[in-house]
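Narrative summary of target 7.
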Amino acid sequence: MPPSEHFPPAQNADREGLVGFGGELSPEWLLDAYRHGIFPWPITDLDAPLAWWSPDPRAIIEFDRFHVSRRLQRTCRSGKFQVTRDRDFAGVISSCAMVPSRRGQTWLTPEMIDAYVRLHELGHAHSVEIWHQNELAGGVYGVTIGGLFAAESKFFRVRDASKVALVHLVEHLRERGFSLLDIQQLSPHAARLGAVAIPRAEYLARLSAAVEQPVTFEGLGIRD
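Modeled conformation, tokenized:
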């Protein structure tokens, strides 16, 4: 893979995964970052410029290790939720920033939201929406390049809605031929679903192959 036009190599990140400060949230900068294993994550409690990160290790969801409990399988089949894709990207990302548990402490600043909405408009960012009683109840969004889906954030207002979104996302990525689902950092919840942490060097090698895959997320989809 050619070197980044805007960033030092991800391998040069410090012990915390910090690659550097500054830059832009333009589509060009964002796509260059994700293509090279780097993502923005503002330090919102400091008067600091935009920060860019590449943690080591890196968390991913392996499609063949993804675990769905029997209870969650029943919920997915119950008809309680309607699932759509790319119907309300702006609603999903705004909800990720505004759900009560994150108010006042989210990294999703208005500038970040505008930047990812622009990526969505250009076809590089996508969402899965979960609806309950005609209201947006949960969802997940992320950035795609080739066979990479870099999941950025998810939310729920109704129990299990974000989990159902993730189940649908994994199923959809499998069907479309994606090979890499990046979730950045491993949480206990993600680990219970089968997520793993791998060395950054391994992640970058897999990323290099994934971004060259001739696959797409596709557009609007609806599933009951």
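The helical segments are 27-35, 70-77, 89-98, 110-121, 161-176, 188-192, 200-210.
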